């Protein structure tokens, strides 16, 4: 060598190991019903600032890297990666739909005044047959409690 540092090789991104619904336990429901409900929350003005630990739905196909999860759902493990792919934090908010986890949905509910008794009522109903149904019911409670009217211009859902 001539004493200079060698140029590091650029690695191509590898395809992620896919989620297998037959053998893997899903961390959240990967279901179109949940994606649509989360979109309703976004359109109703649920505020969200992207951060590590969030699941997001890329309904428009902005992200070219394949998702390991069904339905074009991604997990934000490295926010910088999403910023490189999509641009700014505002671009991430605009282009993706946040899918709050059970824990995140409960925290949102607390901020909106949804108490434990109200939540407990969800689980005594016969129609909440699966954990996914329970999460949909919590999304619905949140939707009903979001401040109204949220006068927003098209494309600004989720921004305050």
Structural commentary:
The chain is mainly alpha-helical and 160 residues long. It folds into 2 domains: 29-99, no CATH class; 101-145, no CATH class. The chain contains 6 helices and 3 strands, in the order H-E-E-H-H-E-H-H-H. Strands 2-1-3 form a 3-stranded antiparallel beta sheet. Helix 1 (32-43) runs parallel beside helix 6 (131-145) and helix 4 (102-111) runs parallel beside helix 6 (131-145). The longest helix has 15 residues, at 131-145. The model is unreliable at 150-160 (pLDDT under 50).
Query: Rg to the nearest angstrom?
Result: 19 Å
Question: How many domain modules?
Answer: 2
* Main β sheet profile: 3 strands, antiparallel
Low-confidence stretches: 150-160
Helix content: 25-40%
Biggest sheet, strands in spatial order? 2-1-3
Structural class: mainly alpha
List the total number of helices.
6
Compute the separation of the termini in Å.
56 Å
What is the H/E order? HEEHHEHHH
Measured by DSSP, the beta-strand proportion falls in 5-15%
Shape: globular
Average pLDDT rating:
84
Number of strands: 3
SSE order and pairing:
Blueprint (H helix, E strand, L loop, with lengths): L31 H12 L11 E3 L15 E3 L3 H8 L2 H7 L1 E3 L2 H10 L4 H8 L7 H15 L15
Antiparallel strand pairs: 1-2, 1-3
């Amino acid at each position: 060598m001539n004493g200079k540092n060698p140029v590091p090789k650029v690695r191509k991104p590898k395809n992620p190991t896919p989620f297998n619904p037959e053998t893997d336990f899903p961390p959240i429901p990967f279901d179109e019903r949940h994606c649509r409900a989360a979109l309703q929350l976004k359109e109703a003005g649920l505020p969200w600032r992207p951060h590590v630990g969030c699941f997001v739905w890329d309904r428009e196909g902005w992200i070219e890297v394949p998702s390991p999860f069904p339905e074009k759902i991604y997990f934000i493990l490295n926010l910088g990666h999403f910023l490189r792919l999509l641009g700014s934090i505002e671009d991430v908010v605009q282009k993706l739909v946040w899918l709050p986890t059970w824990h995140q949905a409960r925290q949102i509910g607390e901020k909106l005044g949804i108490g434990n008794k109200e939540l407990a009522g969800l689980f005594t109903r016969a129609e909440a047959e699966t954990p996914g149904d329970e999460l949909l019911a919590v999304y619905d409670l949140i939707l009903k409690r979001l401040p109204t009217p949220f006068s927003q211009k098209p494309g600004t859902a989720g921004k305050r």
